[in-house]
Structure formats: C-alpha cells, structure tokens
C-alpha cells in the first residue's frame, strides 16, 4: 500500500508542463505506468481525442487514471476528469486498481468490470456523431472491446454488470439495416409521387366544382371557371374543401399526405410506424461489477467431465452430421437445453467463487443422469446444450423431472433451471446453426 500511496502524486504529463508537474513526454508509448501510474494530457483538443482513444485501446494502459487540462469532444467519455478532480480521484482509482483480480484471458464483460468498478464516478456515455451508422456510439466500449462492443453492452445489461441510467435520446432506426440516417418525405396517397403541393382549394356551392384557388382567381376577383358565378362570401357562395393537398402528377386532391421514411444507408422505403424504436441510455455500474473486479472472470467454468465435451464451434457440425444420418438410417436423437435462468442473480448474492463451487456440485450430480455417449457443450455461461443420441423425446420427461430435483444443492435453492428438449433431425432446408440459434432465442430470454 505504501508503494501505491507514493504513486498518488506521480503524474506524467503528455504535452507541455502543467504547474509543478514537469515529467513531460510527447507520446503515449513513452508514458511509463510503473513509475507514473496516472497521466495528465495538456495538448490541443483534437490531438487530445486521438491520445485518449490510443490510451483506452492500449492493453497496457487502458485502465490507468487519465485526466485532461482542456475539454475536448471525447474527454468527458474517455478521461477520468479534469485538473480540478485529479488529486481527489487518483487515490481512489489507484487503490481499487490494486485490488483487482486479473484473469489471464479477459472476456468482454471482465474488461468492462475492471475498467468501471475502480471509478465511483463512472458512467458510460453515448456520443452522437453523423459518422456512426446508428447515430450514437459508446466510445469507451468501442475502445475497450473493439468490434464486440455492441453485443457486450447488451450482455452486460442482461448480467447486471451495467444498469441503464438516464435516457439520452430515442431513435427511430431502419427496420432492415438499423441505420439512423432516414429521410421523411410526404407523398400522394394515390400514385406515391412526391410532387405534391399544399394549396388552398375552393368549392363552388352553385355548381359543386372543386379546384385550386388559383383557378378561381380571375383579374383579382374570385369567379367559378365552370358556372362563372362570382364567389363573394365564404360559407354562402363557397367553402374550402378539406383536401388541402394536390398532386401534380395525377391531380388527385387529398386531406393528409402519408409520410414515407427512406433509409439513406440501404434505400429501404418504409412507413414511419415500421421503424424500430431504440432508446439510447447512459449506463452506470451494476452489482456484478464488484464481483468480477474482486474475483476475476465472470465466466463459470463447468467441469464437464462426463460424456463427450464439445466446444461451441463444433456443435452445429455434429448436429448436422447426426441429422443426416438420422434421415438416412432412422432412429431417435434429441437435443436438450439446460438454462440456469437466474444465474446472474445467484452470482451476485453468493459471490462468484461460491457460485462456482455450488454449480460444480450441481454439474457433478447431473453427470450421473447422462451416459458416456451423450455429448455436452457449455454453450455460454448459463446455457448447457446436450445431444442425447438414441433417445426419443418421449423419455425426456423423466430426465427433466430428475434434473429439476437436482437443484437442492445447499445454497442453490434459488437457482432456476429451465430444461427444454427438441427432437432431431434439423429440417433439411435449414442449417443447424440457425436452427439452434432460433431455438435458443425461443427459450432463453432475460427479464
Ligand atoms: Zn360553379
Ligand atoms: Zn398522385
Ligand atoms: Zn436501412
């Protein structure tokens, strides 16, 4: 701890010296985090954004405290604050970074937890830019996780690692490509032409003729072009039709012009009601962050010692192979899915280490129910998928009941096991991976 305490004041400056901080370098790669765990950026705003992105993308430096002298577009979302907050925030971040339990191959959620838990003031803010196809992006997650950012965000919310905070905006996105660059244009309801005009019309009471007001105006007086009656008083000689619009393409008159939304990215034309409504939130720290930060990874590794353990990548291939065989030679094969539906809550209430121990115990008991020839795959943290060969879906009922009684491991009373089965083969016109994903989507849904 003494070493950490000494380090509170060791701040490297990137750019020109600030006050009495004279340890200056001009590149991120020259910042030595062992001698100077924190950094202060004193550069012009556009360069500052480049440096912030570089630091948060850098495996070695991304978690360190970073402060700025001036504000820039990304400083609120990628830095830890400004000169005024620096001396107060550095000790708490460094103290907590020192407590982190690092696991060697961090997964996206682990990285998010390591970054955000040490920062009590932490928020993930969205930033709007015309460059982003969806309008908003979360630069911090983009830096930490690259291409996995979007998927990781929804998983982080499912697992109570991040909690939606303030609502920042509500977007309407293209239903096809989810782009946010959309043009709204009103069209003729008869012929879909965009060449329409808002024009006052006139309805002659004498002969019933209806047309644009221009047509009735002759040398400054209003006269019906059909019956030549002079129209003096609204309500007596004429009135205004409700059809305020007219189409210059098909000459139809109409009351309301329907609006079409055309996506600039993919060209899809859709009704505004068909656009996908997408709220944009900022996010704050959820309960799981502390568990991951102090205990390492959030992934539970189940000791799948029975049967033939299989990786996720090989599962669809095997399903396809079994299905082709079954179509040719007959027989019964069944897929079983076991979903630990509230694992996230169990992890939070027990802590990761205890949850891991007890689930290991549960898996051991499960082992007795299956055979050497059954294939088992830990599809994700909370989903197990089994391929039960030579088993019809008629006998699964028995298995399911046995599995549900396994939950009586001490401390796991609150764990909910959802068990579903589906008979193979995969229909001939489908590929196994899609079939599996559709089934997962049907069964696994987080509240
Ligand atoms: Zn008339
Ligand atoms: Zn028209
Ligand atoms: Zn589109």
TrEMBL record:
Protein name: Thaumarchaeal output domain-containing protein
Upper lineage: Bacteria, Pseudomonadati, Pseudomonadota, Gammaproteobacteria, Vibrionales
Superkingdom as given in the UniProt entry: Bacteria
Pfam families for the chain: GGDEF, TackOD1
Residue ranges annotated for the Thaumarchaeal output domain, each copy included: 112-285
Gene3D superfamilies in alphabetical order: 3.30.70.270
Domain GGDEF as annotated: residue spans: 325-406
Organism encoding this protein: Photobacterium marinum
InterPro entries assigned to the protein according to its UniProt record, in alphabetical order: GGDEF_dom (IPR000160), Nucleotide_cyclase (IPR029787), Rev_trsase/Diguanyl_cyclase (IPR043128), TackOD1 (IPR040572)
């Amino acid at each position: 701890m003494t070493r950490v305490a000494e380090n509170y004041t060791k701040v490297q400056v990137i750019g020109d010296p600030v006050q009495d901080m004279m340890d200056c370098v001009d590149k991120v790669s020259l910042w030595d985090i062992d001698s100077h765990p924190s950094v202060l950026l004193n550069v012009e705003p556009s360069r500052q954004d480049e440096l912030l992105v570089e630091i948060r993308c850098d495996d070695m430096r991304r978690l360190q405290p970073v402060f700025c002298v001036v504000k820039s577009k990304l400083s609120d979302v990628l830095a830890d604050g400004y000169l005024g907050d620096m001396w107060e925030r550095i000790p708490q971040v460094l103290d907590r970074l020192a407590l982190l339990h690092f696991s060697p191959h961090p997964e996206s959620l682990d990285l998010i937890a390591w970054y955000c838990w040490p920062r009590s003031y932490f928020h993930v803010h969205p930033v709007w830019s015309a460059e982003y196809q969806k309008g908003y992006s979360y630069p911090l997650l983009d830096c930490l996780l690259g291409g996995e950012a979007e998927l990781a965000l929804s998983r982080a919310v499912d697992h109570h690692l991040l909690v939606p905070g303030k609502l920042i905006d509500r977007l309407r996105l293209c239903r096809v490509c989810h782009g946010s660059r959309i043009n709204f244009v009103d069209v003729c309801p008869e012929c879909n032409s965009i060449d329409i005009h808002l024009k006052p019309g006139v309805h002659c009471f004498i002969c019933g003729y209806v047309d644009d007001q221009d047509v009735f105006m002759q040398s400054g007086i209003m006269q019906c072009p059909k019956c030549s009656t002079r129209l003096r008083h609204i309500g007596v000689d004429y009135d205004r039709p409700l059809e305020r619009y007219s189409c210059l393409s098909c000459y139809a008159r109409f009351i309301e012009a329907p609006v079409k939304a055309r996506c600039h990215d993919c060209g899809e034309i859709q009704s505004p009601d068909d656009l996908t409504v997408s709220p944009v939130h900022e996010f704050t720290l959820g309960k799981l962050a502390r568990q991951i930060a102090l205990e390492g990874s959030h992934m539970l590794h189940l000791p799948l010692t029975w049967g033939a353990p299989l990786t996720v990548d090989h599962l669809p291939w095997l399903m396809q192979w079994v299905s082709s065989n079954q179509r040719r030679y007959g027989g019964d094969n069944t897929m079983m899915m076991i979903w630990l539906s509230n694992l996230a809550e169990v992890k939070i209430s027990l802590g990761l280490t205890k949850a891991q121990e007890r689930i290991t115990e549960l898996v051991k008991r499960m082992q007795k129910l299956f055979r050497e020839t059954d294939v088992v795959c830990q599809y994700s943290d909370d989903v197990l998928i089994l391929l039960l060969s030579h088993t019809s879906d008629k006998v699964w009922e028995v298995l399911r009941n046995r599995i549900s009684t396994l939950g009586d491991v001490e401390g796991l009373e609150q764990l909910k096991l959802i068990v579903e089965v589906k008979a193979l083969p995969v229909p001939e016109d489908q590929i196994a991976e899609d079939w599996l994903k559709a089934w997962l989507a049907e069964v696994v849904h987080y509240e």
